[in-house]
Amino acid sequence: MITWDEKKRQKVIKDHGVDFEKVEDVLDDPFAVYIADFEHGSSEERWSIIGKSAEYGLVAVVITFRDDEIRLITARRAEPWMVRRYEQKRNRP
How far apart are the C-alpha atoms of 35 and 37, rounded to whole Å? Predict the structure, then answer.
């Protein structure tokens, strides 16, 4: 199950123009790049995922795991370095 904080969702929509409800498909992207985020998750394990969303194209999503849930922390459109990293993985034989 995928969950999020509704206030945080509204803030991300306002700040980044990306809605959590429309980026869940990033988790199904076979070319998604998963990066452990040790800097921000002092009390919980966080992962940054660079992947394709049908709604927004390439995005970066930060998640954590809570019990049996995947919790969305934030989301935004991919920066140029993220696009390069994604394309490198996608173009590997």
Answer: 6
Average pLDDT estimate for 47-62: 97
Question: 43 pLDDT exceeds 80?
Answer: no
Q: How far is Cα 48 from Cα 35, in angstroms, rounded to an integer?
A: 5
Please state the pTM of the whole predicted model.
0.90
Counting Cα atoms < 13 Å in the Cβ hemisphere of 71 gives 14
Alpha helices in the chain (DSSP H): 6-16, 80-90
Q: Name the E strands within 28-80.
A: 33-36, 46-53, 57-66, 69-77
Tell me what percent of the residues of the chain surpass a pLDDT of 70.
96
Widest Cα–Cα separation across the chain: 42
